[in-house]
């Protein structure tokens, strides 16, 4: 029987079932190798303390600090009506700031005995806000005596690794587990080709793993990190290079538009000329469509830069060449809107097979999950016979029942919502792989494009069409200055009085079932923040209060599609003054008369999402106004995020800020597939050079040896990165 390689040994065998179960469930770690690649987030020096002043909200943190004072309070509560409730408040300090710890009920006895003023310890817990001060409720802690053998042994060396931890498993317990498996690091297979490693002066993988977990000096950490960054960048770029290589091996039908077909007729109808950017990007796309292997192009464009028009011209070129085109949208609201706007732009050219249709006309069909059976049957029939040249729809397009006569081009809108598997399923619908155009209005920094969309060529539309108005954005600090919020509603009324309309966006719908488990609130829960504002509650309060007398309607994802469409139509027609909605309006909703947007609990949205939402106003000739309402204190990271959005309209600048603020893992996130993120030490923004160099090296390696036959260790690393589904995807191309 084969011995299991040391790094594939299940943690259950090495650490015991209880610890292994927590590691698997909460950190996704299953084998010794997984744990060795769970790197410290940062390091504490024994004599130096974390900056309590910089703690992030709502995150699990580990801090090393000293107890300044500890006080036991008694209070009356439902459970202890006679004033027998106990609360221990401990203040810790690190010289940069102070932080309050609270313990309740029976949980006060042990810390009351142990956390005496002057005691030093590591504390771990989730940062929350109570009475506008940061606190940790019921943190776990480990005293740092510095004399008992075990503590000195465990925290040997001056650098204490602090690991990404969870409430169920503190950093120091992960550290002890790593200590147990560290000897296995000697057997780690090195994925970098020896020439590349030596040429760049990088340490070996076993050495890098020892230095990242047990560094003696800061130089050790730097050596380890630069080596591990290369691993991550290189293995990922090899996966993408292999995908690009496989794509170039696939056949595709070249699609060249007829000189005087439907595309020419459409261009003649346009009431304006294309921007330079639109013309340039269209040429890139038409060149790709004319080749004999499938186009794979990413079209990035700011909100409102005219991507839909570019995509429509590409679809018409394919229809001219005798093929069909499919456009995939992430939501029904958006699919219906694309369908409406395409039909409007094309006029009689969209009336193929109908009386009054133009000579070159084709049929445009809509296909969504909620269509009636008869309409759906007709749409499917039009697709299979080739009667319909263009189909616009949601994921419903990917279903087995959908068959095409000759699918030549797939356009995917808002790619970050589509995984590799869905792209793949739609590709399988063509007799030969169709050309693929992916569009996104979320600007993507160059390195992310190389990382997340490394298998796609990139085109950027960065000019806005003439006639677009600027959008003024302001932060409304509702807690510090309540009169600012009152003024915000006055501004909305003013916009409506001037004949315009407004959106109010909320993070939640408000008809969620209350979870009975959450009904009983302990004092600790009370210290947590209030739930996010909800559409249904806010709409009700506005209609009865500050916006009384205006036409207020709601829109959210759980409404019946017909109702959603009706609400959107009324808003687009100007019959509704104010639309209170969730982020269903984030993408693609186009109402030029809407000039104002108020985003409630703005701190609950990401930077890119706020930028997307804001792009819904100022789409006509009147200037747009976007107000970001928040109750977060001035110094919080959330406020800084909102200030950043208010300070610039440049989506690329914001996408950099967004990335720097989010954890790197989200970058690859679901955009590829599976939840396994491969980025642990590679920072996509900072490590632009490493990524660019790794991409070049990877392309050379794959060109010379596409199957990696001479690099078995790299092949193994690739298999680990690319889980089964992704591996099949690479094989299929």
Secondary structure: helix percent: 25-40%
Query: Which shape, going by the Cα principal axes?
Result: globular
Distance between the termini: 36 Å
Strand content: 15-25%
- The gyration radius over C-alpha positions equals 29 Å
Helical stretch tally? 28
Q: Spatial order of the strands in the main sheet?
A: 11-12-10-13-14-9-15
How many distinct beta strands?
21
Q: What is the SS-derived class?
A: alpha/beta
Biggest beta sheet attributes: 7 strands, parallel
Report on the architecture of this protein.
- This protein has 733 residues and is of the alpha/beta class.
- It contains 28 helices and 21 strands.
- It has a seven-stranded parallel sheet with strand order 11-12-10-13-14-9-15, sandwiched between helices.
- The longest helix has 31 residues, at 218-248.
- The chain is globular and about 90 Å long.
- Mean pLDDT is 80; it is low at 152-157, 514-528, 663-677 and 724-733.
Secondary-structure map:
Elements lengths: L10 H5 L1 H11 L4 H5 L5 E4 L14 E16 L9 E9 L4 E7 L4 H6 L5 E11 L2 E5 L2 E4 L5 H6 L4 E4 L8 H11 L12 H6 L5 H9 L4 H31 L13 H8 L6 H14 L6 E6 L5 H14 L3 E5 L3 H15 L16 E5 L5 H13 L2 E6 L13 E7 L6 H8 L7 E6 L5 H7 L4 E5 L9 E7 L4 H16 L3 E5 L10 H4 L3 H4 L8 H10 L7 E4 L5 H12 L5 E4 L12 E6 L7 H8 L9 E7 L6 H11 L3 H11 L3 H4 L19 H17 L7 H10 L2 H9 L1
Parallel strand pairs: 4-6, 9-14, 9-15, 10-12, 10-13, 11-12, 13-14, 16-21, 17-19, 17-20, 18-19, 20-21
Antiparallel strand pairs: 1-8, 2-3, 2-5, 3-4, 5-6, 5-7
